[in-house]
Design brief:
Helix content: 40-55%
Order of helices and strands: HHHEHHEEHHHHH
CATH class of the largest domain: Mainly Alpha
Structural class: mainly alpha
Number of helices: 10
CATH topology of the largest domain: Multidrug-efflux Transporter Regulator, Chain: A, Domain 2
Shape: flat
Number of domains: 3
Strand order of the largest sheet: 1-3-2
Amino acid sequence: MAKIWSQEEIDYLYENVGKVNLHTIAQNLQRPLNGVHIKMKRLKIGNTKEQLGLFTTGTLAQVLKVDRKTVEHWIDYHDLPFKKKKTCKTRSFYFIDPNQFWIWAFEHQERIDFSKVEVNAIPPEPEWVNTLRYQKREIKGNYYRSWTTKEEKALLELRSQGQTFKSIGKVLDRTPISVEIKHGRLMKSERNR
């Protein structure tokens, strides 16, 4: 016969789903993993992807019409606020709260093409977004700038000196991702010669 769930166990479940791996939760509660899954369904506790009101990096990327790697880049290099949650396996997901996203987006308006974002796709949408949605977007910075031979040589030289992609990016006025990708392409072409 199944053991009845105590209020303490239910509270523990609510507090830890999404933060702690489900195998660990099951071990800590001394319950079978399947029993934990069933109790979660009965309590309507979502696991990771079903967290209400939060966007995964993939979902946010779809709404903004950008690549998922772009959103991950904003998290890594431009301080986009996120929460990390674990699934029942060992995989983790990044979740972005819409309110925190809009605060961040206001400070990083040049990174987003608001004309591609549907109205209220990320509720609650602030009023300032509508103004930007219909303005002509100006691309700022060095986006889509071709690499010169001089920059390629400098990249290889700095990398051979042990410089990181981030520090090379600062010297060349490039993003670390751009530097890393270019370095990989240059090394691949060297190997193919």
